[in-house]
Amino acid sequence: MSELRKIGALWYREVLRYWREKSRIVSSLILPLLWLLVFGSGMRNVALPGVDNYQVFIFPGILGMTLLFTSIWSGVSIIWDREFGFLKEIMVAPVSRTSIVIGKALGSGTSALIQGFILLPLSFLIGIRLAPQSVLLLIPIMILLAIGLVCVGLLLASLMNSMEGFNFIMSLVIMPMFFTSGALFPISSAPGWLQVFSYFNPLTYGVDLLRWATTAGTVTTLPAYAEAILLIGFAAAMIVACSYTFNIKK
Amino acid sequence: MLTAKVMKQLYAIEIFSLTKRYGKILALDQLNLKIEPGEVFGLLGPNGAGKTTAISMLCTVNSPTSGTAQVNGYDIRRQAGKVRRSIGIVFQDPSIDDRLTGRENMMLHATLYDIGSAAAKKRIGELLDLVGLSDRADSPMKTYSGGMRRRLELARGLLHSPRVLFLDEPTLGLDPQTRQHLWSHIEELARQSNITVILTTHYMEEAERLCSRVGIIDIGRIKVVDTPANLIGALKGDVVTVVTGRPADFLARIKELNFTHHVEAIDSTLRLHVSDAEKKVPMIVELAAANQIELKSVSIHKPTLNDVFLYYTGKEIRSEEAENELRSKMRALGRIR
Fold first, then answer.
1. To the nearest whole angstrom, how far is the Cα of B98 from the nearest Cα of chain A?
2. CB-based contact B104 A161, cutoff 8 Å
3. Closest residue on chain A to B332 (Cα)
4. 3.30.450.40, 3.40.50.300, 3.90.550.10, 3.20.20.140: which CATH number matches B10-231?
5. For residue A47, what are the contacts with CB-CB under 8 A and spacing of at least 6?
6. Which B-chain residues 90-129 have CB contacts (< 8 A) with chain A?
7. B140-154: per-residue pLDDT in tens?
8. pLDDT at residue B330 is higher than 60
């Protein structure tokens, strides 16, 4: 029970930190808006099977992108905690490493979720009518995706000594994950070698499930239940990997 | 049952051949030490001597390469959780969350140490009073000055009523006034409760004022352990400090006179431990004149803990720069954090 309270306290800290940085919340919305309103409008008339127009197609992709960026950076931000010492306070406290990872993942996941929710009303702007049950389905998908991705960020952070790896992460992890996830084009229209990358990319299943929820079940690559299992497996595996990494004393 | 526990705990800390190696660097070599409950023990040493390494192993943040220790009767290797619950720590580097307020930082700590929220609120109030931060408790940490942060960290380290408190360079980088202020807090604490305090410092004044016993450590090895008074008393006579342009030549001449108990040469400064210094100074000056060696200054003083420190480590406090270099090397090697 006490571990739950501790996870709660660590979660609360993450959310407080996020909430106190209003300027970052606003600035991180600019990129998705550009994709959706500028890129999406320009490509609006590209015909794709199963959706009315291109904007409807990329909306879940942009939602996934926002989760990707927010979550990975929030995981990597543990480097700041390490640099500025707060991590020591947590590491020396009588709390298990697994709880630290879960607290961090849930806290960052919550921030990513809020970010995603701020984007949801935009769907009306581009002509998507989200049914209430669609919104309900989006929540667990976003949470799972965010948790898995935060842990990816934490793992990357454990490999880095300072924030100097910023560009490396951006160009070798985040952007490739984004481009091969099917956020901007259907994977089925990509050449075979690229599809291989997509199938190994966990974001693919996240984006596809988000698309499945926003288009009321009409568009999926794999069956939704299979993708859900893959996503749950991804989040769980990442938490285990992070706890393991954190348990090795540095 | 109770007596068995008391019997078992003769020492607050008992260290057995504690050793830590980072690749080729031997950061701590076979440290053996016993610290009694209620002591204020100072671990002195130049930067990079192994003080922080020792503390971080005692706090279970870092694991020993070999050897072990018992803190409050718990083994640091096998009972890390129990050790953690029974100790408080103020780290050398700040370890508070900047975006949270003082009170929020304290509340988080209370939860992590299983203190119920009602009890926590009461104790946080008392401790903030103790360190004089009650009026600033609800301001974000980033508005705090360096001294205020340290005071908050001290209060936070005491929150879960630890039996042993570790202070790693508690006054590093603080202005003299704030330092005095923090010292009185620590003295007050040691007087009022039976808490054992282990502090590392390279300020000799700090050690002399606060510590009941000190251990001097250099290049990973403990050189001597005793009370500051005994250590100072053990240095015979006075210290004569001579500054000259040709220290090596002059040192060779001095040695011929055969009246020094001990000499240290640091750059152009010679420090001579002699008895009856008042009578020796004229001889030293004459010797210099006879050999046409120019003396820039000569002074006498009674030994202090600083002289004890120089006696055992043979060096002045190393520069911050060298320290940071070593630490970044160690971080790269073994990721000390």
1. 9
2. no
3. A161
4. 3.40.50.300
5. none
6. 91, 93-100, 104, 107-109, 111-114
7. 998 998 889 989 999
8. no
Which two structure tokens, joined as six digits, stand for A208?
A: 């596809």
Round to whole Å and give the CA distance between A113 and A71: 9
Using CA atoms, how far apart are residues B14 and B36, in angstroms rounded to an integer? 9
User: Does the CB of B334 have a partner CB in chain A at under 8 Å?
Assistant: yes
Q: Judge contact between B157 and B197, C-beta under 8 A.
A: no
Among the partner-chain residues B95, B113, B335, the one whose CB lies closest to the CB of A85 is B95
Put simply, the answer to whether A13 touches B108 (Cβ < 8 Å) is yes
Q: Is the entire prediction scored with pTM above 0.90?
A: no
Q: CA–CA separation, A250 vs A226, rounded Å?
A: 38
SS3 assignment, position B48: coil
**Residue B333's pLDDT is what?**
52
What pLDDT is attached to residue B334? 45
Alpha-carbon distance A7 to A4, whole Å?
A: 5
Class assignment of domain B236-302?
alpha beta
Angle formed by the axes of helices A202-214 and A132-159, nearest 10°: 160
Determine, for residues A85 and B81 on separate chains, whether the beta-carbon distance falls below 8 Å.
no
Closest CA–CA distance from residue A12 to any residue of chain B (Å): 9
Distance CA(A113)–CA(B222), nearest Å, equals 53
Amino acid at B103: R
Q: Mind listing the pLDDT tens digit for each residue in B221-235?
A: 899 999 999 999 888
Quick one: pLDDT at residue B313?
84
